[in-house]
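Researcher: Batch entry, complex prediction.
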Amino acid sequence: MRIADLLRFALRAAAGSPLRTALMALAMAIGVAAVVVLTALGDGARRYVVNEFNALGANLVIVLPGRTETGGVGIGTLSASTTRDLTLRDAAALLRADGVVRIAPLVVGDAEVSSGGRLRTTYVVGTTADFARLRRLELAQGRFLPDEDLERAGSWAVVGATIRHELFGAKPALGARLRIGDRRFRVIGVLAAGGQGLGMNTDELVLVPAASAQALFDTSTLFRILVEARERSVLARVKAQVADILAARHDGERDVTLLTQDAVLGTFDRILAALTLAVAGIGAISLAVAGILVMNVMLVSVAQRTGEIGLLKALGAPPAMIHRTFLAEAGMLSLAGAAIGVLLGFAGATALRAMFPELPAYPPPWAVMAGLATAMLTGIGFGILPARRAAHLNPVQALARGM
Amino acid sequence: MSQIELRDIDRVFEIGDTRVHALKSISLTIDAGEYVAVMGPSGSGKSTLLNILGLLDRPDRGQYRLEDREVGALPPDQQAAVRSRRIGFVFQSFHLVPRLSAAENIALPMVLAGIAPAERRRRVAEALADVGLEARAQHRPQQLSGGQRQRVAIARATIMQPAVLLADEPTGNLDRATGAEVTALLETLNHGGTTLIVVTHDPALGERAGRRLLMEDGALSDDRRR
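Model: Structure tokens for the complex:
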């Protein structure tokens, strides 16, 4: 039997009982659509988390004074015992490392902030102009700290949205005087509301030049240095160079801790990729169920077409040929069902994206391919038993059944 | 050398605990081009004999030579090839595939044998003309009368130019007039050289055959030539 004739014969047989064919294709379509939508959801969640991390600065190396054995970013790592101060000169030296775009030293403490008789205690962060670029901070009014010498203790301050509201109310904040501890500052900018990241809500921050904050808190050490690499791929190299430069400056002592979000991000990435695989597996179970339905329906088909099978045998079809026609039928139905399923799945993913615009729910290509392949395999796999039954029917008994 | 040689053919069916001896040591030779009617009461074994001649069933004992070749014990694939090329079947209830047109039903043996579409079309057109159904080529079986259906079935049975045509009660589902037409068609084919073996209850049809085999209780009780 020629391939084209085989396919046409199987197609005609499938078209001969539309309800049966539609049911089988529908089962396959639902299975494949489930795989496509579920993986789109899982992969969308993974991409969402990765994007959020990238917004936080996935290219960052965070330098902490003191050596700790723990990994990861958190408040717990702040209490490392300091052996040697991390200074503004150390920070400046890190700009020499290859692949470093910018750095931002951080001096953090809480202080009383007052203006016009209103007072509150909040976090004061000493840093440089590059902090805004590094953290992609948006300004609502005015401008950020000016680019100036690292060691210069300028008296400008940038305040968060909540602080602005609490200290100034309806009065203009720009240009206003601000007292922090025993020092005076002038407000030159207000941060846009809703900033978040690195465990700090920027709405409640007051930012001043790093040297000013050191003077304010009477310290010469830095809380952290943020180092931004050009891209994630050079992060490891930047990290090594930062370690070398600081060791050279600290008499060969490796007394700082270097953190990257890479490790955290990598973990999240792996967890969510595993989750995606797991939901793909759940989808695959529905495909297996579809496969069993295929088998059931094909068995019914063999039973209904017993007379025809007997006839084909009488007309000279060997068992292998009958086997092939039934497998071709199961395969074609599975393929058609799977194709419909992919379309349904893509439609479902599009609907998901319309409902949750922040979720990039695109079905990953591997999942689409795997869904199609699994559909074909289960369809044909579960078609084998009915096809074999058809191939080995006794022709005399089969012919007795009539057409 | 005869075209068909059966020697000591036994066929036993086991139904529950009872053994039914459907064929008892049948020996028979049939020459090419013969017209044979197999007659006898129900359950006498005539259909079983026809099934064994058509390689649809295997004897439990004995030899079956077709055109000087032992075919009774061939593996299923080779028996299928013999059925495809050398044997044509005509059934009482026509056995046309309902979803296929008359032309497609006639072409079916050629499709199974892998013959090219152009050759198929040519031979189907010829066969339709031979059975007088050119105008019904695209009709489905349910759109045809009983006589027309059996003519389509005969065209299908002969499309591979078999050496032997086996017909099981070919007129059993037809009225007398249409039955006579179908008989005439089969006889025309026989005159063309095809061996024709007909199982029938109909004495009128049996009378027309050149040779009559009478079966009783699984054995040949009479073998009469005209």
